[in-house]
Amino acid sequence: MSAFTRAREFARALLHRSREETELADELSFHLEMETAANERRGLERDEARRRALAAFGGVERFKEEVRDARGSGQLERLALDLRYALRGLRRSPGFTLTAVAALALGIGVTTAVFSAIDGIILKPLPYPDAGRVVFLGWDYGSGSRIASLTPLDFAFWREHSSVFAGVSTSRTFTAELNDNADVPMVHGTRVSDDFFDVVGVRPLIGREFTPDESGPGGPQAAILNHRFWLDRLGGDSTVLGRTLRLGDGVYTIVGVMPASFRLVGNGASSDDVIVPLQLRVDPQDQGHNFEVVARLRPGLDEQKVAADLARVAAEFHSAHPELSDRARGSVYVTSYGDVYTSGLATTLWILLGATLFVLLIACADVANLLLARASGRQREIATRVALGAGRSRVIRQLLTESLALGILGGAAGLLLGVGSLRVLLAITPWSLPRVNEVGLDARVLGFTLVISIGTAAVFGLASALTATRQDVAAALREGGRAGESAGRRRVRDVFVAAETGVSLVLLVGAGLLMVSFIRLHRIDPGFDPRNVVTATFDHTPKGYDKSAALWRFERQVLEQLRALPGVESAAGTSVTPLAGQWNIPVTVEGRPDATEGAVQWRAISPGYFQTMRIPLVRGRSFASADDASATDVAIITRSMAEHYWPGGEAIGQRILLGVFQGKVSADPPVRAREVIGIVGDTRDISLDRSPARTVYIPQAQVPDDWGMSLPAFVVRSSGGSQVGRAALTRVIRETDPRLRPPLIQPLTDLMAISIAGQRFTMLLMALFAGLALLLTAIGIYGVITYTVGRRQQEIGVRMALGARGGDVLRLVVMQSMRPVVFGLAAGSVAALLVTRVLTGMVYGVGVRDPLTFAFVIGVLAAVAIVAAYLPGRRATRIDPSVTLRAE
Fold first, then answer.
1. Can you name the residues that pair with 335 across neighbouring β-strands?
2. Is 99 part of any domain?
3. Is residue 336 part of a domain?
4. Residue 330: inside a domain, yes or no?
5. What is the β-pairing status of strands 274-277 and 187-192?
6. Choosing a second label site near 255 at 20 to 30 A (CA), which of 47, 295, 525, 530?
């Protein structure tokens, strides 16, 4: 039977009683009448004759089910009947239904939202044909040290000599003004090397790819447009091929338009308006790992063949370039898109998904307890059905159908909540999410929501159904539903309370650790004073600023005007503002070729920078105006760098080489050594949660032209607050060069807040999920104890009639209610010690087993549980024994 046929039969059974069912009822009625008449002929009264006829059939409903099973349609019809009955029952109990659906919707909704983000960002394959063969390349130095990018020489050598790749390509992003029009949005483009279209497996929809001449150094300038850019900026003109496009200083001939479905993948930046040739010149002296390289593997290769080929090419590389002795053990390795772009983010998202699943488990425990309480009130109904011939499996199936209905209703409500939560999540996330345009509601997310809806229904439904059907039928009928609660049912409810208490503790401990970490991170000394300092940065360097002298001239003019303004205490220029990124450079101590490092930070600054930032000068002197035209190149280093290279010695007067690996790579012109003239305090320029990096400062006027500098950033300290500095920067920059686009001006305190925004975001979400877990746990404990007190009114009444005081009753209720809570706290503490290990790399200044955090969370959770138990316990003390005993 096809799925469509089954669905049609199910719908018919659900909405209408089938003709076969009517015929079955008529046939059964006929046989009952015949048997009753036969009994009457034997001399029995009418009632006794019918009773014996029914007994002979062994239960009417059981007989009907046997007939339906023989026909093959019983399962669908029973499901339809059970579902109709379940929906009627839920409709008659709106309070119970709304509470259960709300709890499930909360858990399913937040879980769906986080899964949607994980699916779009991490789980989906790249949007290229046969995406499994698309890999990224990086350099492996050995001993676990890897860089997910290559030098131009690495890229060119592996592309030429490797036999496992069908194509190898690299790219660089850029921004430029369109047709010299500063009033329109900037164009975001990507420069790509040849083989790019072979790697992505997508060809232009209109026009052609780049020719070898266009891809080579000095070749003609060509451009291929993104489909959206073509429609929005050029109106979808079909005659666009052959037209020219001015991007910044270059004029490009349009040769193609990409399909609408094509998009580049990367770190989230919009860089695919225009694709142009990279025209890469390979310079062996350029040893900066600045090129992201992506390749397509040839079909039919396994990991062993790829590794063997990469090892072969590595040997050839080191044989061809022995001067790169510092990289003698290194080799190119292949990795995935996720390892390059989402490795750190993936950990955070998976942790958040785990937190939402914990919230969902607590919601399931609450609903299971609600169902248990509801089943206890239906003991007489269940016993009657069993007495009339329904087997235990039949009753369990009916109760599971009710749970399934609740799960589907909760899933539908959770899906709506998840869509809204996802929008909020994407709006407030501080990260530039890769592939964010692929995050949304699709068939995969719908399938996930359906699975967890049915799965949760099975979890809480089966537990409550199995417990509810374990009862003494005769006792239930005799007591009319007023019988005391069985020990088994109490144990099941206690297990649920203990479980949700333990899960809540794990979430609260995780949130507490992140909160303590964030507070300590927020209070850390960055090594500079951010108060009353504003920064100005530019996103584009126009033509005319391609030489270091022009950049320094512009910087000096701006600083002279800024320093003359009232309210400005000091101002300086820098190549990069604090907490805005890493600028790495190799450094070698002159005369000590073994004293080398390739990850030292460097900054080009103007005189007055340390004064403006209030970075203390430890020894020596700061830069002066005389250094700008001095024949001696100078540098200032941080305390940690001085201690690293000259431990116990004097760094002042020593000479270092910047941009040289071990002095092995010759340069033309030769690299000039720089004299260390000062030592300043360490600063956390990269990130507040990282130790201060060893840093070299050089004067802006001494930056070589071939270092490819862009417009400098400015820092201004004012006595009148950030508004004074903002107004001064805006006015002076506009007057100095009206061609410049307005810079991004931010208080330095905002940059500090942005630098820890990821930690704040994770902490807030974890705190939110932990708060929801705590609320659901409190509601669950309160509901269970309220129900228990209601079931024990007779017992409490007898105790009070025998002389028990209200305090005794309250203490009894609270103490008995806290037993599963205490067990849950103990089990949750052990689980938290294990689970919180995943936070090891996400906390700062606190251990994942911090005893104070554990003690505080246990205290909070215990206090909430006591309050949740106290409220119904307090009501129990107001029970009137005489009224209770008369009712019994």
1. 136
2. no
3. no
4. no
5. parallel
6. 295
Which pLDDT does position 58 carry in this prediction? 59
Compute, in degrees rounded to 10, the torsion defined by CA atoms 112, 115, 119, 121: 120
Q: Cα–chain-centroid distance for residue 533?
A: 33
- Give how far Cα 878 sits from Cα of 375, 484, 799, Å: 27, 21, 13
Tokens of 736: 């100095």
Asked if 486 and 470 count as a contact pair (C-beta separation under 8 A), the reply is yes
Same domain, 204 and 268: yes
- Residue 735's pLDDT is what? 87
DSSP secondary-structure letter at 638?
E
Where in the sequence is the domain holding 43, given as residue range(s)? 19-72
Residue 279 pLDDT:
85
Collapse the DSSP code of 65 into the 3-class scheme (helix H, G, I; strand E, B; otherwise coil) and give the result.
helix
User: Does residue 864 sit in the same domain as residue 817?
Assistant: yes
For the chain, residues with pLDDT lower than 70 are 1-28, 57-82, 142-145, 180-183, 266-271, 285-288, 323-329, 375-395, 465-489, 593-599, 660-670, 708, 790-794, 879-888
Q: Is residue 34 in some structural domain? A: yes
Residues 503, 563 within the same domain:
no
Three-state SS across 470-517?
CCCHHHHHHHCCCCCCCHHHHHHHHHHHHHHHHHHHHHHHHHHHHHHH
Do 701 and 786 sit in the same domain of this protein?
Answer: no
Radius of gyration of the chain (CA): 37
Both 787 and 730 in a single domain? no
Task: Give the phi and the psi of residue 655 in degrees, each rounded to 5.
Answer: -125, 140
Looking at the structure, tell me whether residues 424 and 504 fall in a common domain: yes
Separation of alpha carbons 226 and 229, rounded Å: 5
8 Å CB contact between 372 and 464: yes
Are the CB atoms for 397 and 721 separated by under 8 Å? no
Q: Which among 140, 57, 607, 579 has a CA at the least distance from the CA of 327?
A: 140
Give phi and psi for 545, each to the nearest 5. Answer: -120, 40
Give Cβ neighbours of residue 430 (< 8 Å, ≥ 6 apart). Answer: 754, 757, 758, 760, 761
First-residue to last-residue Cα distance in the chain? 56
Write the CB contacts of 128 (distance below 8 Å, at least 6 apart in sequence): 134, 200, 201, 202
* pLDDT computed for residue 488 by the predictor: 63
Q: Which two tokens stand for residue 642?
A: 């001085």
* Total of domains in the chain: 4
Which pTM value belongs to this model? Answer: 0.78
Are residues 505 and 602 located together in one domain of the fold?
A: no
Looking at the structure, do residues 803 and 883 belong to the same domain, yes or no? yes
Read off the DSSP letter of residue 435.
Answer: T
